Amino acid sequence: MERVIAACKQALAKDGHVLALTGAGISAESGIPTFRGKEGYWTVGARDYHPQELATHDAFARMPWDVWAWYLYRRGVCRAAEPNAGHAALVRWGKALPDRFGLITQNVDGLHARAGSPREHTYPIHGDINLMRCTADCVLDRWPIPETVPALGKGDAVTDEVKTQLRCPHCGGMTRPHVLWFDESYDEPRFFLDTARRLAAKATLLVVAGTSAQTNLPWQVVTLAARAGATIVDVNTEDNPFAEIAAESGGAVRGSAAAILPVLVDALV
Ligand code: APR
Questions:
Q1: pTM, whole model, 2 decimals?
Q2: Per-residue pLDDT reduced to its tens digit, 192-204
């Protein structure tokens, strides 16, 4: 850990953005399943109901209320969870570096925002499970899912009463969850594609926490940051492709995000 902290301090002495890139692993200790872990959504799901198919525009077109039901169930799981020490550490880091810090997260659970990470420097590149938007894209806006929409239990159906609340406030049409599905592409207005790439290309330090490196834009972020000469640190309980890249600069730290990020951040702040 000492060597990692020393490498981070050297990077902080140079100009450039200071970035954190997070995945489901940072919320694991808040009780939200990861996707590809032993009890992960895609792992368990594959046995029961193939959620990876549900997380597609194609499925939404064929069975919109089954897809809504699954996201309202996951929304309930996320709202019942509390941010942990890992989320809190990144809030402190952001506060200490208001002009340089950026938080790029794959998580749709909203825990970074609930921990206090300000919208101005938090970029949810896969969307937010608490938001809905118009299926017809009548406008680019997204709206909070009404508080009166209850959490659904696993396998529960969406009631007619709830269906009336999931209407587009602008055109009255059907809404959809504001998440990026597997058969969809990143863009800037909704998923911060250009922002994430721009920040990475000018980064001096990138701390990656709790991701298995299975999705596209995070790879672009890590690759662009490495090409910009940034120091990269990987925090994960297991080995993963980003750890190999981090080993060439800042280093890979094995362990939980909630345990390691506070130590790392407090040593740097
Ligand atoms: N602390 C740190 N890392 C952890 C912890 C923890 N407490 N628990 C698990 N991990 C690590 C795992 O070892 C794994 O590498 O977190 C990672 C979680 O990987 P995934 O479940 O694949 O989640 P993620 O990488 O965020 O998935 C990326 O894929 O399915 C899509 O849109 C979905 O945003 C998601 C994206």
A1: 0.96
A2: 999 999 999 999 9
pLDDT value of residue 47: 54
* Residue 126 is a catalytic residue: yes
For residue 163, the CA-to-ligand 1 centroid distance in Å is: 32
Minimum CA distance residue for ligand 1 atom 10: 25
Taking only the tens place, the pLDDT of each residue in 74-122 is 999 999 999 999 999 999 999 999 999 999 999 999 999 999 999 999 9
Binding pocket residue ranges, ligand 1, CB within 6 Å? 23-25, 28-29, 34-37, 40, 106, 126, 210-212, 214-215, 235-238, 240, 256-257
Q: How does DSSP assign the chain, residue by residue?
A: -HHHHHHHHHHHTSSSEEEEEE-THHHHTTT---SSSTT-HHHHHHHHT-HHHHSSHHHHHH-HHHHHHHHHHHHHHHHH----HHHHHHHHHHHH-TTTEEEEE---S-HHHHHT--GGGEEETTEEEEEEEETT-SSS-EEEPPTTSPPPPTTPPPPHHHHHHTB-TTT--BEEEEE--TTS---HHHH-HHHHHHHHHTEEEEEEES----SHHHHHHHHHHHHTT-EEEEEESS--HHHHHHTTTTEEEES-HHHHHHHHHHHH-
